[in-house]
Specification:
181 residues, mainly alpha, 45% helix, globular, disordered N terminus
Amino acid sequence: HHEQAVYSVSPHPTEMELLECYIRDMSSQFGVTVADPHDRWEWGKRKQLEHLRIQLQQAGAFDAGMTSEMLDQLFSVYAHNGHALLTYKPPSLPEHLVQSLHATMLIASDQPEGDMYQDAMGWQAIIPSICIQPIAGDHYTMVTDEYRSQELARAILELLVATQTSEPGYLPAPSLSLIHI
């Protein structure tokens, strides 16, 4: 239930909604169950991040050198990225470009059922011919697990090679690779 809630924030998320996602993502990334005191929602951002830091250090996910300020900086980047992901609306493209554009999107295959990543995250509205290529793993293991990251690297290399041609002066149809990690 928690995993699916990570992605069920409003289109214009508040800092507290993003903080909840961040806490769940950090817990998931490091395989740690963060204790959730009954009154945590009354705490401010600073106290919640401090609680998260202590829990992750006790579990061995962070070393003693990780400070609350460092975790706050990481959250700031996470919040900006989350806000951009949820609020960005790409401009419409001319119809002739849309019809000739081909794209491949790499996605993690191990997502919770009903997750927003099971489709092309809205890209199919812009590029109807988008192809989704699953990569083994979840959001974190596809880049941290040695085998899965090699599979991701192979897929990226294949897409790069596929966009190249040996014919001088030949311009293939526009191609785009969307890599969601």
